[in-house]
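Sharing a chain and its predicted structure for anyone who wants a worked example. Both blocks are below, sequence first, tokens second.
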Amino acid sequence: MSKAAEKMNKSRLRSSNITVVVSIALVLFLLGLFGLIVVNSNDYAKHLKNQFQIEAYFQEALDKKDIEKEEATQLAFVDSLRAKDFIKSVRYIDKKQALNLAKAQLGLKDTDLELFEDGIFPPSVLMTIKPEYVDSARIDSITHVVSNYEIIESVNNTSALASIYERIDSIIYWLVGLAVVFLIISIILINNSIRLKIFSKRFIIKTMQLVGAKRRFIVKPFIFQSFWLGLLGAVIAIMALAGLWYFAAPKLNLGLWNENFQWLIIGLLIIGVLISVLSTFWATWKYLSLKTDQLYYS
């Protein structure tokens, strides 16, 4: 009979441990998934801002004498732009390059180019703006400054695109806020799973105390076990996230590795272990502080 009871207790203990590990793994997996979204959204927004460009088109000279000096003047203007604080890089596009770009963008063949007049596409300067200047107000100001030069015929309007990037930033802030809320929910769920496990052993804890065992001696094995359960749950969650990301990243045109992923992994490990250990300590200490008759309705 004692062997059957011992076998049943071991089975219950194993089932309880599996339940705790699965609970921790699921909660951390969802938290990690949220973290992946936040990290990649932030990096993608930075990537977009680093690629933000403004194109200004030069006025074309009508007099043949001026045409000879035209390109030299334009190149001098391009060089002067490189000294501006808002400029990351500058590229000069002459008429021939403009024609080739139009050919590539429109999918034209060489025979199709005969339909266009010679030099129909004007020369331009393509300015890549520093990411810290990419907002609608600053882009409007930069566009106004560049368009005021006499050499410039027109500047493409990109303020609407800049405002979209601003909205991306606000969306990221909301995502970070939601991640914090989900972190709090994760802590509560893991804490409840651990508390239920300790609740099932409250009589064993109290019995050990009644026979003279010190509190530190009683708490230590529970904390040690919770450490490994939390670590195992975190590792399972990380492996599941890695598998998901391995298949999802190529379809989203994103890299398999990001330097911020290491902090996400470390964070999940710390959360899994720390919450498990602290929840075990608080729950065990609680039952050690209760009287025997209080265990039946605590």
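Comments welcome. The radius of gyration is 33 Å.
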